User: Fold this.
Amino acid sequence: MLNVFIRIKGSLSDQVESRMMAALTYLTLFLLTGLCICQNVLERGPAIGAVGGSVWLKTNVSNPHEPYMVLLWSRNLVNVITYVEGELNTTYSHVSLNNITGSLELRDLTLGDAGVYYLDMVPTGSPAEHGKITLQVFEIISNASIIPTPAVTIAHQSSLHLTCEAQGNISSIEWTKDGRHLSLGGRISLQQNNRALVISPVKRADDGLYECLLSNPVSNMTAAYTLAVSYGPLNVTLNGPTEISDSVDATFLCSAESYPPAEFSWTFNGASIDVTGAVYKLINSKVGDSGNYTCTANNSNTGSKVSVTRMLIVYEIISNASIIPTPAIEIAHQSSLHLTCEAQGNISSIEWTKDGRHLSLGGRISLQQNSRVLVIDPVEIADDGLYECHLSNPVSNMTAAYTLVVSYGPLNVAISGPTEISVSDNATFFCSAESYPAAEFSWTFNGAKKDVTDAVYKLINSTVGDSGNYTCTASNPNTRRKFSVTRMLIVNGGLSCFKSGILPGVTLSITMMIVLVF
Assistant:
């Protein structure tokens, strides 16, 4: 304690010096005789202060019985301030002393103010009192930040270091993710006294808000960093139509899982398209727009590219459908029929029906040229009916129809009418035939051509001379066939030689002549 006063002495006036010497003598007497109170009169430390702030080093004395004759404060055995019988002396400009309680205030603290402070107190007529306290001065934490290394992290590839930086005295650092305490272990660890957070390797699940909480006894601060792990592109898909009709618009949409969002480029049949977005629109499509549309997703961070392709077929709508028969006329049991289904547009499929029912193939009936041609060889009468070809593609359909009527005959030609009449009677002959198209008729009487072309031949007011052979000939212009039938008529009356209406020597008969003309 003598050293304290010696160091103070050189800076005091003679008057102060004499007072201090008196005080020193008084204090020494107490020390040597044991007349002192040896308990610490200062509050329990350490005392905490912030740079630029103030702090009180307080005593336990709140209401002393007697005023203090001497108050001596020193730091690390260097004088700070003295109070001797009412005189206050100090070389510090930022200290204040409460001479009632002995408490010391330090203002505008610097880191140099930290240390161990001693207090010696000599009350009037009482034993000396002593105290000791440690002052800790901390710089307030500022400019906290988290520095990522590397700046770009790639899932399953990068090893990430997050370094918590700040100015000021750092007593502790704690890390959180998304507001929760960070679980360490495995891929996640702390280094450099918790200053650096290491994740190796990073994964997509590591995305989130990372915070480091820095603190010291006088301040705290939090720095934050949002980690977004780069990945992809993954699951690249290309949606859009695969089949459309011409003149229709088409839209293709490319998507990918990626961070940062993928950049897109497009090609058509390998040729680059001046489109860079996720959407490609085809306006007023044409058949020539059919082909492969390719979307490429690119991630500039990961350096990865993934391409997907979608094929589009542009169909021309089916129109002008018809069935062309070859030959135009079909003759039963002679002709070989080809029905050709014609149309404009893209044809994907052709189906044939007859009279609304699926056409049974086999034997005489077959399909050729990818079902475009129906062949019936030979045609028969039973092949008559409504034939339809149903054309379709993914965007349209159309039906063409053709009614087939097979030419045949004449068959079963017959003539009906009387075989015997009386003079002046009328007679009517009916000629019939099975034929398509309908048979054409002509008549002869006893070989002489008659001016009658109908199926009906009428004889009016007959005479004996009308007796004879009446012949009907049925002909078909398509088949070029002719069939003739004859009926004999006897007209009775006027001659005695007739008996029972039959001329002598004349035999009643019906003769049918068949003439086939090719």
In short: Residues 14-33 form the longest helix (20 residues). Confidence is low (pLDDT under 50) at residues 1-37, 495-518. The longest strand covers residues 481-492. Helices lie at 2-9, 14-33.
